[in-house]
Amino acid sequence: ETGVTQTPRHLVMGMTNKKSLKCEQHLGHNAMYWYKQSAKKPLELMFVYNFKEQTENNSVPSRFSPECPNSSHLFLHLHTLQPEDSALYLCASSQGPATNEKLFFGSGTQLSVL
Amino acid sequence: AQKVTQAQTEISVVEKEDVTLDCVYETRDTTYYLFWYKQPPSGELVFLIRRNSFDEQNEISGRYSWNFQKSTSSFNFTITASQVVDSAVYFCALSEEYGNKLVFGAGTILRVKS
Question: Which chain B residue shows the shortest CA-CA distance from A55?
């Protein structure tokens, strides 16, 4: 069983659709993250949750809505996205939120917005 | 502000060659942490190493070695006797002790040909 599991692996959606990305970690970690990886751009931190509380929102547009019901699960709700939102969305977790913690990543959801 | 530069966009080598991936960073903090992550074709980033700014000892782990030089703000990564399985995107990253995020470089694509 992998440490961090993301579903779905691939998602194609229209600009008017609503969809959700799911992340689950089996490592007993307390912090979870959403990153965006676009072609030819560095990984961008989107959100950080620590003990289910959001501690970081990196100026992410409101069409991305995170949810963290418990320390093991993290969702990213998507609505009225734009084609430029097409990217690989990576979930990660760490023992704690300190910036010197090593991150454990899922395999990502490859999102295409048509 | 934190910044990480990986000037090599893509490197191609033949199996068994040694290869060095460059990483140059910028920070105003005296306490910071440097990381290398590997992203194979499967998508998930895999943690390779973490160094703090007070530990300049070079590290070797099997075929991997890291050269940390504060004088040049560099944290280079060398793979000795490269193998096809080393083909991946490699990311260097930096976090500051009292910062709130891990900043990644743009990544270097390594292609090892048999």
Answer: B100
pLDDT digits (tens, 9 = 90+) for A14-71: 988 899 999 999 999 999 999 999 987 889 999 999 988 888 888 899 999 999 999 9
Q: Please state, rounded to an integer, the average pLDDT across all residues of chain B.
A: 94
Question: A79-96, pLDDT tens digit by residue?
Answer: 999 999 999 999 999 998
Alpha carbons A90 and B88: distance in angstroms, whole number: 16
- B96 exposed, middle or buried (CB, 10 Å; 0-12, 13-18, 19+)? buried
Q: Which candidate, A23, A12, A11, A13, places its Cα nearest to that of A79?
A: A13
Question: Which one-letter amino acid corresponds to residue B54?
Answer: F
Whether residue B99 is predicted with pLDDT greater than 80 in this model: the reply is no
Q: Terminus-to-terminus CA distance in chain B, angstroms?
A: 41
CB contact, 8 Å: B91 with chain A?
yes
Q: How many CB atoms lie within 10 A of CB A93?
A: 26
Best of B23, B25, B44, B54 to substitute, by most chain A Cβ atoms within 10 angstroms, is B44
Residue A35 pairs with which residues in a beta bridge? A45, A90
Residue recorded with tokens 């600009």: A15
Token digits for B35?
């990381």
Q: Confidence band (pLDDT; 50, 70, 90) for B98?
A: confident
